[in-house]
Amino acid sequence: xxxxxxxxxxxxxxxxxxxxxxxxxxxxxxxxxxxxxxxxxxxxxxxxxxxxxxxxxxxxxxxxxxxxxxxxxxxxxxxxxxxxxxxxxxxxxxxxxxxxxxxxxxxxxxxxxxxxxxxxxxxxxxxxxxxxxxxxxxxxx
Length: 141
Ligand code: THU
Prior knowledge:
single chain; alpha+beta
């Protein structure tokens, strides 16, 4: 089993805040994750003058992971500009869930939690697969 060093992940998340591009909110965010092949990936938020186009730190983290060879997230940490733990926003919980290793853990404001605890009964690829299979066996109208 892969070992999780939460201190290292927290430090890497803090380091990542230095790369944040957050001129509109003034709220830098850094995130770091341990991938199932042992590498650590990180991300920072990247804002946009069209506010809704903003990329959360989790977006750049997942991009780095996929572009760097893929994999699944085993452990995740996220902080604000003061280094305080931050909960991933709802959209980013969905994003992380898609790329989670079984039993993925998060360093949250209320302690170490599983992905299932922070996004219970998550929508995911299985819902699409189940529907497609159902359609093949019993097509609608
Ligand atoms: N933000 C993240 O990067 N991740 C989250 O999970 C929460 C919010 C960013 C988006 C925006 O640049 C700033 O925090 C303020 O909302």
